[in-house]
Amino acid sequence: MQNKQRQLKRLLYRVRHEYMTMNNVVLAIAAIIAVSWAWASVQAVQRNYQLQRDVDDKKRQAKLIQLQTDNLQFEQRYYKSNEYLSLEAKRRLGLVEPGEKVVVLPPNSAAVKAESAKEDSGPVKTTVAPAPPPLQQWLDFLLGARSGGLQNS
User: Fold this and answer.
1) 146 within 8 A of 152, measured Cβ to Cβ
2) Rounded-to-integer distance, Cα 143 and Cα 136, Å
3) Measured at the alpha carbon of residue 35, what is the angle toward residues 31 and 41, in degrees to the nearest 5?
4) φ, ψ at 10 (rounded to 5°)
5) 97-124 tens-digit pLDDT
């Protein structure tokens, strides 16, 4: 037991006299200050980054709202224009301007059926001829043959 106490006392003595010197204490305090300063700097950079991101988001939102406002103003001017009033009068009331002629087709005429068929049909389908095999493409290229819909010269 005394041996352990003696070893402990020796260890404490050695720590006090070898490691707890003034130079080591000043160095430890300087290290603590440097680490705390670095940590504060990192936190400041992170906070500035977050704030800048928030500012950028707000600027984007403001620009979007400005674009929406401009669009609504354009629509408002269009709805107040004589062109819109004329088109709506033609569409809703069936009015015509001087010199215009209205042609009313019966619902079962060929022109009406063709127009409704165009509206009902989906996108136009086209077929493309399959490309020749790679070997044939190389031979055509090397021998100077033109392919792909081009005419031979």
Assistant:
1) yes
2) 10
3) 145
4) -65, -40
5) 778 776 776 777 777 777 777 766 555 5
